[in-house]
Amino acid sequence: MRWSRFFINTLREVPADAEVVSQRLMMRAGMIRKVAAGIYTYLPLGLRSIQKMEAIVRDEMNRAGASELLMPSIQPAELWMESGRWQKYGKELLRIKDRHDRDFVFGPTHEEVITDTVRDAINSYRQLPINLYQIQTKFRDEVRPRFGLMRGREFIMKDAYSFHTTRESLDETYDVMRDAYSRIFHRCSLDHVPVEADTGNIGGSASHEFMVLAQSGEDAVVSCPNCRYGANVEKATSKFFDDEVEPAPSEVLAELHTPGTQSIDDVGAFLNKPTSQLIKTLVFDTDLGPVMVLVRGDRAGNEIKIKNHLGAQWMEMLSDTRFEETTGGPIGYCGPVGTKCARVLADHSLRGRKRWIVGGNRKDMHYDFAVPGRDFPEPEFGDFTTAIEGDPCVRCGTPLEIYRGIEVGHIFKLGTKYSEAMQCTFLDESGQRQPMVMGCYGLGIGRTVASAIEQSHDDDGIIWPMPIAPFEVVVTSVGKDEAVLRTATEVYEKLKTEGIDVLFDDRDERPGVKFKDADLIGFPLRIAVGAKSLANGQIEWSFRKDRAKQLGAPDEVLARVVEAVRAGLS
Ligand code: ATP
Ligand code: MG
After folding, report:
1. Looking at residues 279-305, what average pLDDT do you find?
2. Is the peptide bond before 129 cis (omega within 30 degrees of 0)?
3. Scanning 42, 91, 232, 530, which has its CA 20 to 30 A from the CA of 542?
4. Which residue's alpha carbon is at the smallest distance from atom 27 of ligand 1?
5. How far is the CA of 444 from the centre of ligand 1 (A)?
6. What is the reported pTM?
7. Own/partner long-range contacts of 478-485 (Cβ < 8 Å, ≥24 apart)
């Protein structure tokens, strides 16, 4: 491809609304263009990287034994009513009507359509297991679309769905898919970890996320440096001994006058105690009624764990206006003693605690020496807080580390959630009808490409890993000298013959402009042909990564470059 005929529109200015490096660089390099919030055009350069990513994914999915199909973006609402998600899926689901006033959705994911397809086509255990995938455009009306392709509203996802007769068969495919995911991210040179994850909106029993480690990541990941336990903080558990608290010197519930202590830090300062010795009270509104949750004063409640424990459809912090009537106490002084909340939960770290200092449900008042089961109903204990750096690993006790990550893939064991709701069944060996056991496997194509940039760039631009670079090599002619143009053209033609994906920067531009553009776009390899070195029979080549220039005769350089591309060096 010749630059002069290709559509490349690099920008000098940094787009004002670009918040992260990948978004900034993809816009400046002319890879994507914003059309509306979270909705982008993939310009020719960007599309090349996207298509290379798709090819890697396709290759690994086929190798894992999955068959490709393509489902529609627009799906009838009836299927979503059958699965129950028409009601449950919130505002992220774009609902549309056709001219006959019939309801449709723009698919945010495809469990319903695939389950409908499979229940029609498959009847016997002999036809199972099967694994189907597609690479397709999704729409999710995200609350905060941002970061370019990382959190778009319209985005390309690879989604796969597997169907089985037994859980063991699902386990096997799940492991094969997990390995396929590792290979995909490895092939793109991404520094990544698989971690245990919450199953969120999709539901199901087990799930793993693949995280690309990057400072700009929206997720936090807990990782054990010893046993490799890894989990999203939304889900991560840690061993947690509450052995720091002094025993209660009194057997009787005591009132504590604590004027002007709205926050847990105020109470700690006032009583001259570390907040870990106090108990913090959180109150949530849920579809199952109001719920009080007690956690150690220095810990944050984990809403996802709490919501999962309750089995609630929705949950939010209790609003200020309803606080007093719901709990029986003012904000800042809420506690379990005499509360109106019917349901009280307590974090497992409080189990066995000897001294409970809690809110008094009256202004400027707390209680000391409260005893669960005596002064207030015995709470439901569970894991309701977020693990933090240094907590002991649940498996081996080693202090945990925390990293930031970008979730690029998410795989789930769905079990029979959808097959039961939608009667996707098969006849087993004894002629009994059974629901199929399902797995599903998502991977964000655009998000993965963007995360590669987050991991690999410098002040001048992108540094592509070879397998997803828009072009593997750029050949730059320096100056208008006829011999230069002739040699550059020859080099370009020979690279094409070798099957190298090469862009020839044949523009009539100053060398500085050409080199700046090449650095910004980040082609892994550059060959420069200029009059000065050509006079000595030499041309120059360099890797984008270190830009160290090497000189050689054209044929020698060609051989070295072809070798580097084939070896995937960048
Ligand atoms: P997140 O928690 O980041 O919203 P999710 O859990 O909703 O992700 P899944 O439903 O598991 O995501 O979707 C599978 C994959 O699709 C994700 O791992 C991610 O790579 C990609 N993805 C999800 N939402 C978006 C989005 N808004 N923009 C781009 N890619 C996305
Ligand atoms: Mg999401």
Report:
1. 94
2. yes
3. 42
4. 151
5. 6
6. 0.88
7. 478/511, 478/514, 478/528, 478/529, 478/530, 478/531, 479/511, 479/530, 479/531, 480/508, 481/531, 481/534, 483/531, 483/534, 484/529, 484/530, 484/531, 484/534
